Every structure is written in C-alpha cells, then in structure tokens.
Amino acid sequence: MSKKKILFICGSLNQTSMMHQISLHMQDFDCYFTPYYTDGFINYLVSIGYIKFSILNGQFRSKTEDYIHKNNLQLDYRGVTHNYDLIFTCADLIIPKNIRKKKIILVQEGMTDPETLMFHLVKYLKLPRWLASTSTMGMSDQYTLFCVASEGYRDFFISRKGVKSEKIIVTGIPNFDNLKKFAKSDFPHKNFVLVATSDARETYKIENRKKLIKDCVKIANGRQLIFKLHPNENIERATEEINKYAPGALIYTNGNINYMIANCDALITQFSTTVYVGILFGKEVHSAFDIEELKRLMPIQNNGTSAEKIAEIGKHILRFPQTSLDEIHKKFELSLAKT
Predict the structure, then answer these.
(1) 200-225: buried (b, 16+ CB within 10 Å) or exposed (e) per residue?
(2) Could you give the CA distance from residue 12 to residue 23 in angstroms, rounded to a whole number?
(3) Residue 62 φ then ψ, to 5°
(4) CB of 98 closer than 8 Å to CB of 76
(5) Which domains does the chain have, with CATH numbers?
(6) What's the mean pLDDT when you consider all of the chain?
(7) I need a labelling partner for 205 at 20 to 30 A (CA). Which of 26, 172, 269, 271 fits?
C-alpha cells in the first residue's frame, strides 16, 4: 500500500521552518513542499514578475525554494503532482482551488497585523482577505483545524476574528515555544536598546520611519541603540535614515535577533512576534500593541514540542479520516493540558 501524501505549503522562512519541523515527525508519510501559491489574476501577476513584496514572489519565494533544496525536501510546486490526503499551511489569506476540498490544518505563524480600516472593510463587505494581510488570519473557515499559540490567542481568534471554537486547538507554535533556549547568547553587545524594524513600507503600509527613529532615540536616552533591519527592507534607504536621525546607532542586517534580545536592556518593535522574546526575558518592551494584551497572548512554552503535537493531530486525521472535531478535542486537549 502506498504511503498517504501530505503537502506542506510554505511562505516566509519562518513559515517554511515551521512546516519542516512538523514534517520531521511524519516520517511514515510521503511529504512534499511548495512555496505559497494562488490562482487566477493574482497568479498571473506573480507569473509576470509582480507582487515581489509578498510570500508569493520575490526574495521570500527564492529563500523558501533555497531552503527546500538545501534540506533535500521533496518539491511539488503548486501541489499539482499528487492527490494529497492532508494539507498543512501557515496562511489562509488565499486558499488555492486545488486544496479547497482537502483536509487542511492551519498553523498560526505568529503575531497578526493590526486591525485597520481595511480589516473592517474586508470583514463586513466580504472583500478578499489578502487586502488586509495577516489581520484576517483564520477568517477563511476553509480548514479542518486551526492550531494556535496559546489560550489567549484561542480567545483572540474566536472573539476578534470570528473563528469557530470547535475548529481551534491550542498546541503552541514551532519557533516560539522554547524561547528560553536563546538565553545563552554570544552576541557581542550588552546593555543596549534594540529596535526590530518592519517591512511596512515595502508591503505598502503606512509608516513614519523618521518619527519612529526619533522616538527610539528618546527611549534610549543615551543608551547604545542597535537597529536590526527586517530582511525584506530596503537596506540602503533604512541605513541612510538611521544614520541621519540616530547617528552613532549600530545597524545589523543579518543575525538571529533572538540572541540580540537576550542581551538588550530594552526592545522596541511595532508589529513583530519577536516582542514575545522580550516579554519572556523580562525586558523593557515597547510595541505598537498593548503590552498587557501581549502578555495574555504569549505563546505557550512547552520545550519545543509544538511541532510534534501538531504532527500527532495530523496523523490522527490521516489514520481516522472520519473522526469528528469533538473527538480530536477530547483526545488531544487533555494531553496538551499536561505540558
């Protein structure tokens, strides 16, 4: 009997790494990977070289393809080669037509974007979800289960996004479920203020970078400022701005920001999931989001076992395809509560 087949839909490197970690616990199945993809007019725009700022194209897609090749993962671009028994994905802004009738496990990637005017227009006028970016995560209702980071996020997605309670399960999420491992840092600087910038402008959102940098200088109040640029940023432009408005600040374009956070005195972010690393380490944290709400949303820390837990749920669905959501909750929520 041939092995059942699973398609892992990737996106950013963070999403791709999550998908890979889950697959490592599903060795008894035939696992394939694809960069994120879509249909119709948007796919046409991708095919002629547009939308390079998103996970559909540009450096995001290139880095994902490099990751797949370097890790010797089986590539099936757009999932067209096989008839898949189960789909894993970290995003539901777009659900491609060829997976809409499949069993899909959606995995929370991290923090969602703020709920702007566009979010409310999408929600109430039923506009395409991608117009409001990740603020609409979970709102497709075109998945079997949605694995989330914490009880706080479970309540958040139900109350704010309208996710059905029976479709959501708390598992923790890979890459953010064992943050203490970054405590032993060899980052050469200490006692500084770290700024994790965003790619808001590159993704056509509004950001007053001049004001942000000046606010960072005030918060630092004489302490060393270090800027870690978002990998999707225009590095030349961002560097010029920082040198102009925060002379003497250090700028990093590469490196693991989590180790930088472990050594900093204060962390400044806008919409980055890295804020949870700062909260865990008890740092002085500044964010565009309410800090008390972030503490309620904090991803559960289960010593890095989220990928295995998510994989176990996937295995159960594959082995017992007629299982009900109620049965899945009864079987897995009890064991999850023990961690």
Answers:
(1) bbbeeeebebeebbeebbeebeeebb
(2) 17
(3) -60, -45
(4) no
(5) 5-177+300-337 (3.40.50), 179-297 (3.40.50.2000)
(6) 93
(7) 172
Helix (H, G, I), strand (E, B) or coil at 39: coil
Q: Are strands 104-107 and 266-268 parallel, antiparallel or unpaired?
A: unpaired
What pTM, to 2 d.p., does this model score?
0.92
Cβ contact 107:147 at 8 Å = yes
Q: Per residue in 173-211, pLDDT tens?
A: 999 999 999 999 999 999 999 999 988 888 778 889 999
For residue 95, the 8-state DSSP code is -
Residue carrying the six token digits 């993962």: 73
How is residue 127 written in tokens? 């506009």
- The closest alpha carbon to 217, from 241, 181, 182, belongs to 241
Query: Residue 339 has what pLDDT?
Result: 44
Neighbours of 86 (CB within 10 A): 23
Per the document, the length of the chain is 339
Answer for the pair 137, 92: CB distance below 8 angstroms, yes or no.
yes
Contact 229, 301 (CB under 8 A): no
- Is residue 95 a contact partner of residue 102, using CB atoms and an 8 Å limit? no
